[in-house]
Amino acid sequence: MADEEQTPAQEDSLFEAPPMGEQERMVEAILFASAEPVSVAELAARMPHGSDPAEALVHLRKRYEGRGVRVMKVGDAWAIRTAPDLGFLMHKETVETRKLSRAAIETLAIIAYHQPATRAEIEDIRGVSVSRGTIDQLLELEWIRFGRRRMTPGRPVTFVVTQAFLDHFGLESARDLPGLKELRAAGLLDNRPPPGAGLAGAEDEDEDLDEADGQPELFEE
Amino acid sequence: MADEEQTPAQEDSLFEAPPMGEQERMVEAILFASAEPVSVAELAARMPHGSDPAEALVHLRKRYEGRGVRVMKVGDAWAIRTAPDLGFLMHKETVETRKLSRAAIETLAIIAYHQPATRAEIEDIRGVSVSRGTIDQLLELEWIRFGRRRMTPGRPVTFVVTQAFLDHFGLESARDLPGLKELRAAGLLDNRPPPGAGLAGAEDEDEDLDEADGQPELFEE
Amino acid sequence: MAEQQDEFQADALSVSERLAAEALIVDVDGYEGPLDLLLTMARTQKVDLRKVSVLGLAEQYLGFVEKARHLRIELAADYLVMAAWLAFLKSRLLLPPDPADEGPSGEDLAAHLAFQLERLQAMRDAAARLMARDQLGRDFFVRGIPENVARTRRVSYSATLMDLMQAYARLRTRDEFRPFVLDRDAVMTMEEALDRLRGLIGHAGDWTDLVSYLPAGWEIDPARRRSATAANFAATLQLAKEGDLEIRQGDTFAPIQIRKKIHG
Q1: ipTM of this predicted complex?
Q2: Of A5, A158, A186, B62, which has fewest CB within 10 angstroms of its CB?
Q3: pTM listed for this prediction
Q4: Does the distance separating the beta carbons of A83 and B146 come in below 8 Å?
Q5: Which residue of chain A comes nearest to C134, CA vs CA?
Q6: What domains does chain A contain, in order, with CATH numbers?
């Protein structure tokens, strides 16, 4: 990858300044990577001694004429910006992302691991009631959907995760979610045994988990 | 822009797709605006109907050859990155990254070269158990993610490398890992069971084949 | 293994090799386990890993373990397991094959060990080459001013797989400490006991052992018996306080007896 023969960086003026084409490349890279517009003085400070960033900027600016981005003066500094006629392309970029609430992420996790799960089951595991807004939010995000009704008294609806959920979390199927043992191995679970667990080792707990799921299609051996 | 007549045929649009020169500008603007790699599908979704971002990318990539920034393929997405030989100009931009332990680096390499790889396989190759937190750290960096479970007893989870991994190391795909072909030719990437392990090995290999099929973006020929 | 033979072997080693071997022992914490150590030893043979002498390697390793014993250095168990295995391998390699023996041949085992060493070395080299590549944020860089310009605001909620797994792990660990779902049928609340006792004490005019008031079936399972006993005892205290019940206990640890209080 590294271009040995291009090794630059002559601080002292014993060496000639790099050719203008190289200087142009340097200005291009600096403007691209900087988080703020860069002044000519700062360009000069960062480039090899004897460089002429002002002239390089003239060339670079010309090079970008009519392109999808252009080299613009912002105050007395320079930056690369989208060509104004292409601003319409930037629309998708505007999504504001927020973190899911703890209630929502826990509810989602329970549905993912225990699906199909009823509201009562979710509340049982979380130990608190699940607000309507939480479920609605997950439905709206299309990360969960209604599954089949449970054939128990009251015929409660169940929730399952969606393809969009799998896509978002980079999973090929809900089966690929790591089990308790793997969570523990990854350091996500405390290794403390539950009080009074006695001889019941980690293996047993994992089996408990599998059994509690009652979901042969998800956690079958 | 003499490409006018090359405009691809539209199936159902009332409008013609923009000329290729314009499409190239659009791709340029979108890639410049995004810090993350952008997939061809997303480019197509954001550009006017009937556009062919894949072709525009070919032109754009050529245009930036030898410049201060370059158009890079990252998995099935594209990004603009500064030319590596100019890294010395960027000290200001350098982010101090957490130093990875030797164990973490080796684990990462094993996952990259053997993917999808299970924890047991990593441990078999390194000859020691994978310490708590090593996998965790790589997951947190988003350099690895969970792949499909292996269809072997215990159905262990597997790990694969991510687009962020490819982006970080400037790789177009996992196939471009340095020395991959030679290692494969030397048989060093085979999952060779120890002698006397019985016939169990044969079935495993079949499964591995299936796994590889499931990840065309990484290892297809 | 004869001590004498071992000494002889040690003498056969050159001074520098011996120093190297001793350095290995002192440094054993620096190795990531037996395979790592074996790989280091294999490199001292200064040949292509493919041509490494596994027999020589086994002897070198066993010599190393022996020397550690002399120097009273405690080696971790996995080093000793490897030593035992290598001793077995050595005997397989040296003795003529027994036709009645079914297991894999010494050559097969040796070839696999050589493969493991070569593979580990290959992965180390690969890791080094990977890390030597130009890296994002060090050698090449992303756009410094990503333009997220447009003003159409749409809120999207994000969560990572780590968030999801951590949330689940949190819930599951809490479960381990407070398995309320399972507990429920082994728990009797004081209210329940109070309700039951109120109905029952009317029938018993004479002193009765508190234990006999436990609901049927609850005295068998220890967890249920404990819960029901505690709830019943608390309930009797409550009833005594209300003046409906008398309690007595003949001696420390003697059975607790209750009877309905005769009013008036």
Answers
A1: 0.61
A2: A5
A3: 0.60
A4: no
A5: A1
A6: 15-89 (1.10.10.10), 102-209 (1.10.10.10)
